[in-house]
Amino acid sequence: MAGHGLEGDRHADPRSPRQLLIGGSSVYEALALPPLALRENLLLDLDTADLVSGMLLRVGAEVILRLTFQCEACGALAARVGASSRALRQRRGMLARVETSGEIQVGDPVTVLEARSRFLPDDWHERAAMVLDAVPPGMVMSYADLARVAGVQSSYCRAFPRALAKLGQERAARAVPARSPDPAPRWDGAGFFVWRNPGCQVERVRVSWTSK
User: What residue stretches are annotated with the MOSC domain (predicted)?
Assistant: First the structure.
């Protein structure tokens, strides 16, 4: 579902860069992982470490996905699947947004499009800086909305005061706690991910299986 995610997925979110997690079959083979161990939504016959933020993938005849950034493998996940965080580094999967709606099936071809959208860095500090740079003049955004649009857990809000201070006073002033008395109107990140022109196809892989 364009601008939303997978139908029925509880993690679907119109303002998140984490609408869908793409896994690669090669990491399952290399680490002998059981099916769905990485909790991906879509498994492709490739190595996701080779994917780059800003790439556009067409899945089947209709769906277009916009790659955002690599999903960091936490220690808890590594312990659960019996692998080290180092082994999973850059291999947990690639996160994406849904640009064009449609249906997909196992075995659908996946086409890498020639066009590219905005690059989003893997480092969440850099992503937060990009979001803060996009705050409209005269407005501020809450820590919760900043976390949502930057693609980090809400628990990161506790680290924002110190982390944002390192991004410079001007940027730090554009984000406020939920109960801040600042009278400036709030921006929720609407429009940050708006992008057009999907481009043309240049390379193909295939879907292995899908899950929610």
Answer: 1-113
